[in-house]
Amino acid sequence: MPRPRTPVAKAKASGADVKNPGRHTGRAAPKGVAGLGAPPSWMDPLQKKAWASTVRELPWLKESHRMLVMMTSMLRAELELGSISMAKMQELRRCLSQLGATPADESKVAQPDDEEDDDSAFFAPPPGRKPN
After folding, report:
1. Taking the complete model, does pTM exceed 0.70, yes or no?
2. Nearest 5°: phi and psi at 29?
3. 3-state secondary structure of 40
4. Which helix (H) or strand (E) holds 131?
């Protein structure tokens, strides 16, 4: 079974589109897709807290991920209460994997609040020479 495609936003954030440009040629993110928005009103406070944590930790999520984030939030709230079964814990792991939140993906995705490297030292003209 082939690996699932990396979403365009995640590929850009992780640099995968630069590392393997051929894989991402001609791909574009769906237009008109909004952010996740607020958690559903029917969620309890602990589930809403889990929702907020998930949104903060995975900034590339969009409206199309909403159902998975709902499931993840519900399972994450149970985990925080300590009342989660092994089967639900495995389902939580699967949800996190589908959202790109596994430890293997964490190192590949740059968070938006990461500091940018200052490349000016590498690309500045030598002293006494004017830039082109």
Report:
1. no
2. -70, 145
3. coil
4. none
* Residue type at position 43: M
Listed residue (105, 80, 104) closest to 92, CA to CA: 80
* CB atoms inside a 10 Å sphere around CB 97: 13
Q: pLDDT (tens digit, 9 = 90+) per residue, 9-63?
A: 777 777 877 887 777 777 766 665 677 889 999 999 999 999 999 999 888 888 8
The letter for the amino acid at 80 is E
Distance between CA atoms of 50 and 75, rounded to whole angstroms?
Answer: 9
CA distance 124 to 132: 11
Q: Which residues contact 76 (CB under 8 A, 6 or more apart)?
A: 47, 50, 53, 54, 92
Give me the amino acid identity at 35: G
Sequence spans of domains, the chain? 65-103
